[in-house]
Amino acid sequence: MNLTRLREKILNKSHSAMLIFSDINISYLSTFTGHAATILLTSKGNYLLTDYRYFEQAKTQASHFNVICRDRANQSLASLIEDLLFQDDCQSLSFESEHISVMQWQQIHQQISQLTKLSQIEAVSGAVEALRFIKSTSEISSIEQAAKIADTALAAMLNSVKAGVTERELAIELDYQMAKLGSEEVSFATILLFGERSALPHGIPSDKQLKLGDIILIDFGAVVNGYRSDMTRTFVFGQASAEQKHIYQLVQSAQQAAIDAVYEGVLGSHLYQQSANILLNSEYKKYAGEGLGHGVGLVLHEQPFIGPDCHTTIEKGCVITIEPGIYIPGWGGIRIEDDVVLTDEGLKILTKSPKGLIEL
């Protein structure tokens, strides 16, 4: 259980406590999917603090927590935290510093500083995120379902590709197809770009119309049970030029080299280097993307972040993207991206859409 793992990692002393502020981390630890909540873990109890808007939902979802409904008119969050820390005789406290504003923390700190027994307060970063790095079987299944929705939606959307259609129109159609297939939301704002605009790695769909010879770059994902997929496919509308074919082959070879190098315990930097060996030794080296990929799960971009300085090892249950690309201003870009995971049976590719260069 995620909560047990965190308690073993952080709350390894009596009279200790931890505050969790991130909605994503709260959901990960408690399965509560609402907002306006804070988790306080002490050596004596698990508390989920919310208000009347989410109290009944939290009681139903967060079965391993003592759910407390704060009267917002008469009690501040800071004073409620103070009361619980005093009640459980807490002497040390850690808190998620990256998920709370300076003003909010100052209010809490001012209140709890009155507790004479609270002798240590420590800011921590990435404690829950480190646990999210390795996915359970059910988490991987959710990502795989999201990837399947994305694969099916892409195949359906390609029927709408025609001369004159706009980037925005196709992006809306793709989002609609994912929703119709059961995606809870889009994994992120869909990137769908034509021609020279495909050189924008994270470009926003525009009213640009499709014409023969254009590259079509599509980066998108679906969501199941809060877990996200992330896939990029690149096509050519009409007959591909020799240069388009050549660059596509370079990118595909670079991606395959990294995929072939994935094994338990491999460094992220090693995966990057396998891809870079191809792209950075080509005539297009100055146009190669700087990173190779990232973890994906409840958040689109999770640990590890795979690049030349990634010293994190890839382990079983770690879902990552592998997405090399070449982006040439004024010409266009080509990226190929898949979600992969190491299992007991070896590497599994979760995104299944065809990857050979397809001329639409």
From TrEMBL:
Keyword Hydrolase: yes
Keyword Hydrolase annotated: yes
Recorded superkingdom: Bacteria
GO molecular function terms attached to this record: aminopeptidase activity; metalloexopeptidase activity
Pfam families hit by this protein: Creatinase_N, Peptidase_M24
Boundaries of every Peptidase M24 domain copy: 143-344
PANTHER family per UniProt: AMINOPEPTIDASE, AMINOPEPTIDASE YPDF
Protein name, as recorded: Putative Xaa-Pro aminopeptidase
Source organism of the structure: Colwellia psychrerythraea (strain 34H / ATCC BAA-681)
